[in-house]
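Page 37, continued from 36.
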């Protein structure tokens, strides 16, 4: 009986400690446990090894994306067009089912997403995962593994599946990547430990510490949901000290305000950066002049003259808003303010950039026909004309010309036997002088006469 009473007292004390956590307010799921999730899919174990390292370094929760129907060796036969993986990768709408779910996705503000490269892209089961949860306001840092293929467009192509998340640039790792390399990569992205990392991860249900252990047969152990997770010291994540990426995004973004206002009152002492924007091959590129004495820059954007939304901070003088984060037909403006390293005080006023209406990249398809190679693409609403390009064997793009149509045929006489061709199309102005949007390359087609 004394043992039972002692155990109950310890449990009551644990609950009272969690209920009384101060610091950043009342205890939430992210304060009681990890606010970082490492989710991964691994068919051969290579991606799992990277995920294990990352989770251990960060003290993060680990979730394996397990297919309801496991992949067999025959399924993974990349050389067969009839294999399961070949068919899935050739079907952009394929969504392999996942066994199980993340218990509480809402508690995580940062998600590391790992996968192998299959045919230059993420496996379709990653699409299933991204469409299964609400990632609004969360930061997603993708990583992949492969024998030689780069990450390519595999991470960018996932953005549309979680458009309300903030995506960081992904990275490819080879088998056997060291823990130190992974740790440096996390630091460079401003992702730091959510709780003290240990060499052995804690079990799902930590046992309460007590001077007298309860008799195992007399006192049932608390369930995973009944027992609070170990208390985490809620420490704001530091900005990466390694070579900074364009935007520091590990810190969650606050709600948009009508005008970028300082987070701590101070008289602006520096000049406002002069901001210009223009169309880039992969989105909208924002540039500004360096301001003497500015430790960092806070970047904002707005749509159709609406409210300013904060993106994040950087020490660079340029930032590219990726195509997956932009909307066709919307007019964008950007602005930049000087701020302190801790992002708590603005050091300058701001000037809005020029306005730019964004046109999405057409999706281009090509096929061999009796007269040569036929190129087709979707109409982009509002686009006055289309500029058509081609390249041979992965070389440089060559401009062909413009059209108001959504199809073009490259005649056989203009093609070379045995050469692999790709085509792309960009929206442009009626006078053919200004490109209005980025581009997506078509698939490659080897032409034979």
């Amino acid at each position: 009986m004394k043992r039972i009473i002692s155990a109950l007292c310890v449990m009551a004390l644990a609950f009272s400690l969690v209920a009384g956590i101060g610091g950043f307010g009342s205890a939430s799921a992210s304060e009681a446990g990890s606010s970082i999730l490492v989710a991964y899919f691994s068919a051969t174990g290579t991606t799992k090894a990277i995920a294990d390292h990352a989770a251990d370094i960060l003290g993060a929760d680990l979730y394996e994306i397990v297919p309801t129907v496991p992949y067999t060796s025959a399924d993974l036969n990349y050389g067969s067009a009839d294999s399961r993986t070949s068919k899935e990768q050739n079907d952009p709408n394929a969504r392999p089912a996942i066994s199980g779910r993340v218990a509480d996705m809402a508690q995580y503000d940062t998600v590391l997403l790992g996968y192998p490269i299959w045919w230059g892209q993420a496996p379709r089961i990653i699409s299933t995962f991204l469409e299964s949860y609400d990632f609004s306001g969360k930061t997603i840092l993708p990583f992949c593994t492969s024998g030689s293929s780069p990450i390519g467009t595999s991470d960018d192509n996932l953005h549309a599946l979680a458009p309300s998340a903030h995506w960081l640039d992904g990275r490819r790792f080879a088998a056997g990547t060291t823990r130190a390399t992974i740790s440096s990569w996390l630091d460079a992205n401003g992702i730091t430990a959510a709780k003290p990392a240990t060499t052995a991860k804690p079990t799902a249900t930590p046992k309460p510490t007590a001077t007298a252990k309860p008799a195992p047969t007399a006192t049932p152990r608390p369930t995973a949901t009944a027992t609070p997770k170990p208390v985490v010291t809620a420490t704001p994540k530091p900005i990466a000290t390694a070579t900074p990426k364009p935007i520091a995004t590990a810190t969650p973004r606050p709600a948009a305000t009508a005008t970028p206002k300082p987070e701590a009152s101070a008289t602006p002492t520096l000049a406002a950066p002069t901001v210009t924007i223009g169309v880039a091959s992969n989105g909208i590129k924002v540039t500004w002049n360096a301001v003497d004495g500015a430790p960092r820059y806070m970047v904002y954007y707005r749509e159709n003259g609406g409210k300013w939304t904060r993106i994040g901070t950087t020490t660079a003088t340029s930032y590219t808003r990726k195509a997956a984060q932009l909307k066709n037909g919307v007019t964008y403006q950007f602005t930049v303010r000087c701020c302190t390293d801790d992002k708590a005080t603005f050091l300058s006023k701001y000037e809005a950039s020029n306005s730019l209406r964004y046109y999405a990249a057409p999706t281009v398809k090509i096929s061999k026909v009796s007269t040569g190679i036929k190129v087709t693409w979707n109409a982009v609403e509002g686009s006055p004309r289309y500029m058509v390009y081609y390249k041979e064997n992965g070389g440089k793009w060559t401009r062909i010309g413009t059209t108001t149509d959504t199809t073009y045929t490259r005649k056989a006489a203009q093609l070379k036997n045995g050469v692999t061709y790709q085509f792309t199309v960009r929206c442009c102005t009626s006078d053919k002088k200004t490109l209005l949007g980025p581009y997506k390359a078509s698939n490659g087609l080897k032409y034979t006469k």
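The CA atoms of residues 23 and 283 lie 40 Å apart. Flag for discussion at group meeting. Residues 2-19 form the longest helix (18 residues).
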